[in-house]
Amino acid sequence: MHSTLILATPRDEPLLTETVAGLPLAERLRRTARRAGFEHLEFLPVAGQGAELKETPPGGERLYALLKPGFLPDSDYLESLLALPPGQFLVGEAALVHRSRNADLFLQRLREGHAPSELFALLRNDIPTQVMDSPGGRLYELKSREDIARVEDRLFQSLVKDTEGFMSKHVERRISLAISRRIVGTPITANQMTLLSICVGLAGAALMALSGPTGPVIGALLFLAHSILDGCDGELARIRFEQSRLGGLLDYWGDNVVHSAVFLAVAVAWSGREPGAMPYTLAGLAIFGGLASAGWIYFKTMRDKSGDGPLYTSVSSEPEKSRATKVADMLSRRDFIYLVVILAFFQKLHWFLAMSAIGAPAFFLTLLWIHFTEKPGAEGAGTN
Fold first, then answer.
1. Which runs of consecutive H residues, i.e. helices, occur in 242-377?
2. Which residues pair with 7 in a beta bridge?
3. Is 43 helix (H, G, I), strand (E, B) or coil?
C-alpha cells in the first residue's frame, strides 16, 4: 500500500519554519510521518500555482491522510490512521483519510487549490465519508507561535514512561527534562550525553574508592547525577527522532560498566579499612550477577531489535507479562541509587555491596526461572 500524509498547508507557511523542541515544525512533521510508516509527506497546492502533489505508482491500494492546519500529531496518531480500512473517514476534527485503489477524484480536488475548510467539505460531499473519533495517539493543537511553548511542554512530558520507578519518574525525570529542554536546540547529540553520563558515573565510582566520609558522599551524588544525565540521552533521541541501535547499546552497556565500577570501588574502600578477601569476593559476585543479567536480557530481548525504539523495555520479550516478569521489571529500575546516596552519608556503603552480592546473582537466577517457567499468555498476565 502506498501511503502519503498531506498537510493542508502551503509549503511557504511561516509557522512551518518555527522551531518546536529542537526541530523546525515542517521537519518534525516529516520525521513523525516517517516514524509512523508514511512513505511520503506532501503539502497542499496553493490556488493558481499548479499541482505539487507527487504521482504515486499505478496499481495497488493507496492511502492519503489529509491533516488540517494547526495540528501536530504524534507517530501513534498517524499509525492509527494507517490502520484504517478501505473507505473515506473524517477522523475527529483534524484529519480526513482516503484509502482506495482509485483516488482520482480525491486527488483532483486536492490539486484544485481549495482552502482547507472548503476542501474538507467538498471531499465529504463527493465521496461517502464515515465520521469517527480519533482512534489513538496524541494530537497537539498548534495554530500560532504562541502555542509552541505549551506544545513543547506536552511533548517533553510524553517522554516519561509508565514503567519507570517512583523516584525516577518524580525526581530524576523532572531534572533531566529541564536539562533536555535547554539543550535540545543545541548541537549536543544523544550519544554525547550518554558518554558524559558514563564519565560522570565513573568519576563517582573513583571517589567512592577513597577513604574518609567526603569522597564516597560526593561519589554517590555523582552516581545519582549519572543516572539523571542518562535520562537526557534517551529524551534527546526520542524527541528528535534520532534513536539508533548504536545509541541504545552505548546507553545500556555504559550503565552496566558504571555499576560494575561502583561495586569494585566500594570493595576498594572497604578493603582499606578491613584487609582481606571478603570485599573483593562480594564485589565479584555483584559484578557477575549484574553482567550476567545484562547479558541475558540483551540475548533474549535486545539482540534482534532495530533502532526504531528503545532497545531495553523489559526483562522478557513476551508481549504478555506475568506477575513475576512485572516484579523483575520493577527491580531492574534504578531507584536503588537513592539507597547508595543514603548509605554513603552514613558511611555504610559496604552494606550496599553486601546486599548487591546477594541480590544481583539472585536477580539473574530469577531471569532464568522466568524464562524456563513462564508461558506466553499465561493466566494473570497483562501488558507491561
1. 245-273, 278-297, 323-331, 336-345, 349-373
2. 43, 67
3. strand
2-141 and 159-373: identical CATH topology: no
Q: What are the tens digits of pLDDT across the range 76-108?
A: 999 999 999 999 999 988 999 999 988 888 888
Cβ atoms of residues 156 and 239 within 8 Å: yes
Q: 169-183 pLDDT, tens per residue?
A: 778 889 999 999 999
CATH 1.20.120.1760 fits 159-373, yes or no: yes
In contact, 160 and 175? CB cutoff 8 Å:
no
d(CA 297, CA 328): 11
Q: How confident is the model at residue 316 (pLDDT cuts 50, 70, 90)?
A: low
Beta-bridged to residue 296, according to DSSP, are none
**The pLDDT of residue 250:** 93
Q: Which residue has the cell 547525577?
A: 225
- CB 101, CB 62: distance < 8 Å: yes
Which residue in the block uniquely carries the three cell numbers 549519572? Answer: 226
CB of 384 closer than 8 Å to CB of 326: yes
Average pLDDT (105-121) is: 85
The class level of CATH for 2-141 reads alpha beta
Mean of all residue pLDDT scores within the chain: 87
Domain positions in the chain are 2-141, 159-373
